[in-house]
Amino acid sequence: MNYIGENELLIDLLATDYTLLSSTMNKIDIQNGNEGRLYIELHFTLLYSEVCRKIMLRFSEIEEFSFYYNQSHYFYNVEEYKLLKVGDSFYLSLDPFADDANNKVSSKDQDFILCGKVEGFAQP
Question: What's this model's pTM, rounded to 2 decimal places?
Answer without folding.
Answer: 0.92
